[in-house]
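Protocol step 4 of 6: structure prediction from sequence.
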Amino acid sequence: MPVTATLVPDRPTIRLSSSLTLQATLQGPAPLRIEVPAQILAEESAPLWQVVPVGSAKLVDLPDGQQRWSQEYRASPFSPGSTVPLVFREFTVASGNDVTSKSVAFPTLTIRVETTIKTVKADEARPATGIEELPPLPTPPAVPPGVIGFGIAVAVLLSIGLFFALRRRKPVPDPLPRIEALRELELLVADGTAPNRLAEIVRTFVGQQYHVPAETMTTAELATAYPDGELREILEECDRVRFAGVPWLPDELQRAVEQARSWVSNSNEPGKTDARPTNHQHRFPPG
């Protein structure tokens, strides 16, 4: 018994924007062995339709040793027409005890594809028109002069306020010479550099506190410029240890540091009277 092929659409007429469903079946002696072509549509229908399978093919056993193969397809048209051909390529099928395969053709379908686009007539054609000019943009409303003046006045006031705020901002002062000197004295280490370092701390303090070149003056010059016996005693003790090459003992260093700390702590600021008890009559003049 030969293999029969059927191709049934769900409707004979569709719109160009829609699609229809096709039911393809092959029936013959079992077992059916079917080879589906890679391109379903024949050459005359390929430009006119798009056909894709829906789901998987089914193979069902029938009475009298028969089998039926079925596959559902969805077809979408590309072109309108009263009779748009829908033709499948031939499938290769072997059935029953056949050792060779045969080509089986499906019936040709003609589908009516409708469109809502009317046929264009020559007498209804209109010449092409140029680009339509857009209406002019509306003119923005004019800003009242009073509003402009008010805005300028606000900007001027803000600028003046910012100027005076910046002028009132005071720079962050550097650490006071006295605080810095006392901090450096606390960090002194009992080694060979201690005499040099102590003298340097005291001279730096005098230079910053009274704005004199104490760091470049010798002990004798500084004593002449400022006859403060305690200051001279501190510096001469540093010179003695430096030039003798004999380092301070820990208790000697402690006494020297305490004397320097006491003198720095009790030194008056420039322009103020020295309130500490002293027998010295001269102080550095204000810088």
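Step 5 (inspection) to follow. Residues 179 and 272 are 18 Å apart (CA to CA).
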